[in-house]
Amino acid sequence: MRVPALLGVLLQATVLVAAPAPLKIESGPGPNPWTSLKISSDPDRFQFAVVTDRTGGHRGHVFQDGVAKLNLLQPDFVMSVGDLIEGYTEDPKEIEAEWKEFFGFLKPLKMPFFFVPGNHDVANPMELAAYRKTVGRDYYHFVYRDVLFLCLNSDNPFPSKFGDDQLAYVAKALAENKGVRWTLVFFHRPLWADHDSRVKAADTGMDKLDSLLHGRPYTVFTGHMHHYTKFMRHDQRYFVLATTGAGSEMRGPAFGEFDHVAWVTMTEAGPLVANVMLDGVWDENVVTERSAGFMERLNKAIPVQQGSLFSAEKSIHGAKVTLRCTNDADLPLKVRLEFDDGASLRPETLRIDAVVPPNSVKLFNLPLKASGELNVADIGPVSFDWTLSYDTSDQPPLKIRGTSRLYVDGPLDLPARKSPVVVDGKLDEWGALPNVCEASRPPQPRDGQWSGPKDCSFRFAVQHDDQNFYFAAQVTDDVWLKKAKDDPYNQDGIWFSLDAEPELNKARPEKERKNTFWLMLLPGKTAAESVDVGREWSPAGVRGVCIKTKDGYVAEGVIPYAGLASRLGKPGQAVKINVTAYDFDPSESQDQGIYFHWRPDGGSGLDYPGAGTFYIQ
User: Are the C-beta atoms of residues 79 and 46 closer than 8 Å to each other?
Assistant: First the structure.
């Protein structure tokens, strides 16, 4: 029987690849969309978890959270290293209640749990008797897939000892299991590094245990110290685990302080240990459509400065500021504001906790005080930390944290000069540039976009003579990105704006404002290569240059008074000025670039009266 031609082509094009059962996959000619078909299916490979200290100053709900997340991870079983109840009492009713509570925590666990006692669990003879009655043996062993598990009591006898009976038990268990591929040892106190001061190191029995284990591959797991450390002893690994709810400063991995379970994969080469942080494991509901909506509302609720914090005086002893927080969710919003005690201006109450009712706005009226008289021009941004959260019963905690700044403005001097500026990108004739921007005003860069003043910052000066208004800036920028001239807002450059009639323009619609001018300058390697974006449509004589430097670029610009309907130069006349540096790196798009503002961007809705006001001298 002949095979039809088309079917013959198909049979030649695809073949069933020999692969470990139960994998079945068809392979075509040429490259295939996988790296290999050697899937790990070793029947001797298994995974288990180790929980560590729950008590010793327990923190509520952490251990229960660990149980829920172990059910998500689905290990074969769960080991422990002790300190499961607070203990340290001889009241039998109290001990009974604590064990009853703990077994309640374990009830939801969907896999076996193996106990190991800690000092809190067996701190006295009464507790040890209660442990043996409630839990069972305080030391024992078992074998699983040719791996020996030794579960010991490092406080038998109490404190900090492996007694002779227990060591004899270990010797017998080891002798009966000489051929196992690995031995795993679990106990509470890391007696080689930390033991009760009433017991000499030589008397803990640790050296004898090490001697019994010598000559076989093994790994030791302990707890007790509430911070994680891996030791290498006798060419073997000895682990001190962190916490699963016990007292801890929780300063993070660098300090070994975190809540976790140790995730152990038994391989041919021995146990592979991973630390699974509890706050990094969530079920499939980590984000739902509902919770995403709440997070959007949290971002909208970030406290913002309401109105201006502007002083007509050049020196102050204090100020008043109002923060606005908007909650447009159907849940109460918890707000925490925290101010630095060392700030030049600060409220009397450094921490404020409040609740914003559903679908409402709350204003925080904050009087700020200084320790003495402050020059307004020298006052930097007043930073404060905020935490916003919603409590929901069916989601992970909905919480965001961040830092915002309050800004103080006062009158700034716009000095006169005796001779015109030569606009050539050379700043020798300017002297010091007094206006410094090392922290962007709102809208600020998102987290991760800005790494500090070397990434993007600038300083500038403004001056005038009888004919012109002048501007100069020196920008620090660690990476220079230059694109086509017709894409000015997606590359490095500096924007300068001038409002010669700020009081009149406040009452005018944006499109009808008069005597406003701007310069957008893009750096080049020379003055001739720099780009003045607005030169083609700016009034006659308005121009600037921008030149690349070793660590950024410099810019100069001029605006002739002839282009202004109302002449500048009158003493006491006010002008409003803003400067923005555009900072893009080669890997960034417009959505990822930094717009680094000296004063809030006028188009953001966050501008305030008096911001960037200079008075002509």
Answer: no
